[in-house]
Amino acid sequence: MALLFSHYSPGTTSSNKGIVVTLPALALSALLGTALLFFLFFTISSNSYSYSYSSSCSCPSSIQNGVVVYSEDDNGNRNTVTPLRTTRDDVDWVKRQIHENGLHMHDNVLRKGINPRTRAQQLDDFRQYKGISHYEGADSNNRTALPCPGELLVEEHHSNYGEPWAGGRDVFEFLAQSVKLRPESRVLEIGCGTLRVGLHFIRYLNPAHYHCLERDELSLMAVFRYELPSQGLLYKKPLIVKGDDMDFNKFGSEVTYDLIYASAVFLHIPDKLVWVGLERLASRLKPYDGRIFVSHNIKFCSRLGGVECSKRLMSLGLEYIGTHTHDSLLFNHYELWFEFRRFKA
Prior knowledge:
This protein is α/β, with parallel strands linked by helices. 36% of the residues lie in helices and 18% in strands. The chain contains ten helices and 13 strands. It has a seven-stranded mixed beta sheet with strand order 9-8-7-10-11-13-12, with helices on both faces. Strands 1-2 form a two-stranded antiparallel sheet. The N and C termini lie far apart (91 Å). Residues 1-21 and 40-68 have low confidence and may be disordered. It holds the Pfam family Methyltransf_12. Keywords: Membrane, Transmembrane, Transmembrane helix. This is Methyltransferase type 12 domain-containing protein. The chain crosses the membrane at residues 20-42. Residues 188-291 form the Methyltransferase type domain.
């Protein structure tokens, strides 16, 4: 079977000529045409999607003070990360939300629900009845994956430090910004307690990049049995070691830190042990860029006198940079921080 197409050439007086096309050839042509159209459509769509996807990926998701913050993974890929501190725009925004919602500073009764309980009442219930378990029988039959003392469940440990628990965010923002912290940085805290500050570092840093030396067993119980599980941070695997002798061998002999800090801890440590700790820490601080921050006081220097203290610091390879006053974002409060660096490799 064949189809006849008339072909006309303008200005030609000769008889019309026909082109014979077989049906299989026509079908093949149609198939090729369809394939070509599909290919062109797919190519255009793919390019459009790729552009859209790459554009969305290249747009910075985190900007602080006009600067995009990046981190690199083990393969050298660059990713945007969370800003290190609250910006003025953030504060202005939340103030507007408070104003627009008609919220005011007055006593609020934050109790609601079917069966409200204060922390004291919750703790009494835990002690009087069966704690957190609905299962009768010995502890060995308790099906709870990680048994947790009632004192931790009602967060009594959040009141152990004399200042609002929320102040930990203030400390994190100040220290992180001061050293231009990145997720791949390494941080050592002397006396992390129940992670009032440490939680923020753990959340921001890469796994196992936060280390702490803590002597109080109850605080460590709160860390491992409540704070890390409740915050979903067990996967970060921070290295937290029990000790009160300024022995840092368990952290590894080759580890050096971008930041070492102690928040009010040196208040409770004998001067001699403080100097022992500083001597051991000096070699673990990254030269030049690494920093040691001590809050509230440097009593070991004030007791020695400025000149003698400077000499001893110099003998350790440490240099006093200066004192900083850091204001709280959440309450009328400030802290003094003393900054040191290692001035030689």
